[in-house]
Amino acid sequence: MGQTNTIAEFSCPTLLPAQETILLGHGSGGKLSAALVRDVFLSTFTNPELSKLNDQAIVAINGSRIALTTDSFVVSPLFFPGGDIGLLAVHGTINDLAMGGAQPLFLSAAFIIEEGLPIGVLRKIVASMQSAAQAAGVQIITGDTKVVEKGKGDGVFINTTGIGLVPDGIELSADAARPGDKVLLSGSIGDHGIAILAQREGLEFESTIESDTAPLHTLVAEMLRATPGLHCMRDPTRGGLSSTLNEIAVQSRVGIELEEAAIPIRDEVKGACEMLGLDPLYVANEGKLIAIMEPQSAESVLAVMREHPQGHGAQIIGSVSDTDPGLVTMRTPLGTTRIVDMLAGDQLPRIC
Amino acid sequence: MGQTNTIAEFSCPTLLPAQETILLGHGSGGKLSAALVRDVFLSTFTNPELSKLNDQAIVAINGSRIALTTDSFVVSPLFFPGGDIGLLAVHGTINDLAMGGAQPLFLSAAFIIEEGLPIGVLRKIVASMQSAAQAAGVQIITGDTKVVEKGKGDGVFINTTGIGLVPDGIELSADAARPGDKVLLSGSIGDHGIAILAQREGLEFESTIESDTAPLHTLVAEMLRATPGLHCMRDPTRGGLSSTLNEIAVQSRVGIELEEAAIPIRDEVKGACEMLGLDPLYVANEGKLIAIMEPQSAESVLAVMREHPQGHGAQIIGSVSDTDPGLVTMRTPLGTTRIVDMLAGDQLPRIC
Fold first, then answer.
1. What pLDDT, on the 0 to 100 scale, is given for residue B205?
2. How far apart are the C-alpha atoms of A205 and B255, rounded to whole Å?
3. Are A195 and A81 in contact (CB under 8 A)?
């Protein structure tokens, strides 16, 4: 598949026929999601901020740069090794703000609860949200509760929407990667997705694989302090590292070349992926970030990241080129190169 | 029931036992909702802004007063006379901002879609949201899409979260009603709830009853321009006029005395309520507001409201007293007085 096809495919997806129905893959974070977003949402909610396809929108209000981001969480099961839906909801929204360079300030929390949910379960989730918010220094200031009949929901779905303040001079965007830039990854990939899958399917590994759910805003703040050379940040959640990098490659009209050997993956996760036939490049993460930045200060930013608890496994995993815009490729340890495409369908539904 | 009981009941609800489960009534906007909010959410997400129980939180960011509000919409059916879930989602969030005196600026939109939903249905809803947003002068700037398996959702649930700017000097709050204030209502009540119920149950009336869904921010702006004497505004959605006024009476520690004859109810709605055994005071509205304000300028504000398309049916429906704090009472046309309590269970589930 050449570069032109890839860009065309992403920018102008085949129009979804009107009679088509929603598939689980439309929620995957991969190709079907991208087509749905472009064909149904972007074509209707036309505005320049939305079409940047960043994790957050940044608007000027009274001279301040305010970031807004929203996420609904439908993860199943509600509790899993390393976290729960509440923790995920708070961290996910904090991280989407942080990826725009915003200081996360305030969150809303809206609950859609299925009739019959034990109130004790709700209490546990709410307590988890509050402790995550307090630990991260954000406040949950407004909320909403709806109840649907048994069989019309699934326990509880949570929407968290967040606002933050973007300091002047910070410009991070998925369309800002430049040829020559380095690609940094803050740590090992695949932990969250495998933790959920193992819990859901009752799989047992030698050691428990825990979700990596974590707030990344203090790591981002350290990185921004260390250099003015950051161009783009994203957290590779649904669709994994590959889908996130594909989006950046398309939005920035650049090629991204990865070094497979440099991508950190924990042995247990690698083993679980092999056993389950999954590619860790497509497995969701909830406490990792990708940074694309000018090469000069990449090593010094890497050193700063490794000093931070959320970045001690950071690596430079590749670079940005002007060949093959829109395409992500990976050099294998054997020296061959393969295309790292976007996820086509849905590898793991309801991962977040 | 005396005043003390009512306040105690609302302020310190019986603790929900840990083994209790969520009932549909927990989403009603009435007593069960209030108990859930206080017992599970307010006791955990402790902060002064949330505990005001306004429709929106207002926080200072960089010297600007930013309002934040969130609402999830789970209305069934998705389409009904006078509107659809998309229209409701945009209007509802605009109105929650407006009730704090905020100029609505930006919305997020997050969709939880059930596998199998025809994409044509989604397109129609999204188009409806965009036209409502454009008509109201707000922009949908960020979004999210999740998909759940068939049987784990119900068509589509939508969360809209909005941010707005509150001009200096505006202080509207549910705890700001003062004895002597007048209670204004912008028009007839019960239309939305009856429209949904009729559609859901396939009921036919002589003329179709349409939802009153409408954005109220321009009406609020006119009212704020007309007087500095507004103390509190709320839109009586879930739980209807009675639940909203009960909340204000408790938050402000005042009594509210209504004149039954002054409350506008359309004949068709009155007839439908009689037939169905519903009390229109508890039926949801989606395009009406209650204003509580100083008496001197009440008549002039009423005149301003009646000039506005969303306020032409406005009436002064009662006043605020210092007797019976926490209690809402109503004088009937026969001259007797009855207590207007909060809704206990759920009269009409999934109305918004």
1. 81
2. 63
3. yes
